[in-house]
């Protein structure tokens, strides 16, 4: 069932226009808190959810949440604001100066670390990079790469940690060459060509960690443009698990899931202690990630056998079109016995089992994300009859499609 936060996300929160002075004197009933956090991306929205969760569990705060883009200069009212505390994603020196000069308790939730005197809550980039590296190593790759953006501390830290894990495992990591000294992203046309040249030069198959989901999506776009197959030749994992971005990518993007809710919650808890007069360390408070959302962009075992790799690619592209093993045999010059033997040895499943696995994964996605009737889902996933889909689904999952859909809705 939906929790209280999802039913009423603003319970116990009073939103006040920053043009109206905060409550003062004996009539003041709640702390006035400014949130300088954008709401334009999933990471920042996760921080805000965590802050709201803390407020629901502890105190009523009067919240100032101005329209604020990432890295925007401070809004004018901040210079004369007389509130009780600030939680800010401090992305440039002007914001850092404005927040510090306010003279009120403040917590920073940015990796830029431009206000070192403030308590700092951030995701644990070492743990994030380690999770991504192990995810790719488990898939049997012999070649690895990292694609980052050196404008950001968190990208550099993730690159360093990822390279260390890969190196400790006995492999070489290829890093995307950076343009030194740039403060803004280059034009997409130029960046697209540089990414294409880099991907073409990498040894394959290769597992790539991108510094975050947007960079990973760019890599997927480039791979599609230059006809490099994902995940068979290049497997890509991002960071942030922006579900809309990841599921709109082609193919859907695997991503490390940061615990943004806990990050925001911890920031609110630290600010609450500071407002109460308790000493709080300015050391980093690092929050470990929740895990990995595995999607098609890394759903592969590294395959050196080109014919089996071709067979796997054909199955992944055509499984929901109603193909069978005979169709797979038409795509590769192998006998059925040799295909079955080599496929089982490398993939750990038979070609038929792989076809069914991909179909049923797609069935699960449609059950969870749409209201399509079962007969339409069967039609879209290569099952001739909904009854056959029902039997195959229950055999794999132990439950019916209807039960699966109801259970998933209850946990949203």
UniProtKB/TrEMBL annotation:
Record-level Gene Ontology MF annotations: DNA-binding transcription factor activity; transcription cis-regulatory region binding
Region of interest called Disordered, as start-end residue ranges on this chain: 1-25
Coiled-coil intervals, chain numbering: none
The HTH araC/xylS-type domain, residue ranges: 309-407
Biased composition (Polar residues): 9-18
Alphabetical UniProt keywords: DNA-binding, Transcription, Transcription regulation
Protein name: Xylose operon regulatory protein
């Amino acid at each position: 069932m939906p929790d209280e936060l999802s039913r009423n996300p603003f319970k116990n929160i009073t939103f006040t226009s920053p043009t109206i002075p905060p409550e003062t004197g004996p009539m003041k009933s709640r702390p006035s808190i400014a949130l300088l956090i954008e709401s334009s991306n999933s990471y920042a929205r996760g921080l805000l959810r965590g802050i709201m969760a803390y407020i629901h569990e502890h105190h009523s705060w009067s919240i100032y949440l101005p329209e604020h883009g990432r890295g925007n200069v401070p809004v004018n009212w901040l210079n004369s604001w007389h509130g009780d505390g600030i939680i800010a994603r401090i992305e440039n020196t002007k914001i850092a100066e404005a927040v510090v000069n306010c003279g009120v308790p403040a917590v920073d939730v940015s990796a830029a670390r431009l206000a070192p005197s403030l308590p700092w809550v951030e995701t644990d980039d070492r743990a994030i990079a380690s999770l991504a590296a192990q995810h790719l190593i488990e898939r049997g790759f012999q070649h690895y790469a990292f694609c980052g953006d050196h404008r950001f501390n968190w990208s550099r830290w993730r690159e360093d940690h990822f390279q260390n894990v890969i190196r400790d495992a006995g492999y070489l990591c290829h890093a995307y060459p950076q343009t030194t000294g740039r403060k803004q992203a280059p034009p997409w046309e130029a960046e697209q060509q540089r990414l294409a040249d880099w991907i073409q030069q990498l040894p394959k198959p290769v597992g790539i960690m991108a510094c975050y989901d947007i960079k990973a999506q760019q890599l997927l776009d480039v791979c599609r443009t230059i006809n490099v197959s994902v995940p068979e030749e290049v497997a890509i994992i991002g960071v942030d698990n922006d579900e809309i971005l990841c599921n709109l990518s082609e193919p859907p993007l695997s991503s490390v899931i940061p615990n943004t809710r806990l990050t925001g919650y911890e920031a609110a808890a630290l600010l609450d202690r500071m407002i109460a007069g308790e000493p709080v360390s300015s050391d980093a408070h690092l929050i470990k990630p929740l895990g990995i959302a595995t999607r098609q962009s890394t759903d592969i075992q590294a395959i050196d056998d080109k014919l089996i790799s071709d067979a796997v690619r054909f199955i992944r592209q055509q499984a929901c079109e109603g193909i069978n093993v005979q169709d797979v045999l038409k795509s590769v010059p192998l006998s059925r016995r040799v295909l079955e033997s080599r496929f089982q040895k490398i993939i750990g499943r038979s070609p038929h089992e792989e076809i069914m696995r991909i179909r049923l994964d797609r069935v699960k996605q449609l059950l969870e994300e749409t209201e399509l009737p079962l007969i339409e889902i069967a039609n879209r996933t290569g099952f001739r009859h909904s009854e056959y889909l029902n039997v195959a689904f229950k055999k794999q999952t132990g439950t019916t499609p209807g039960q699966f859909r109801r259970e998933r809705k209850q946990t949203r």
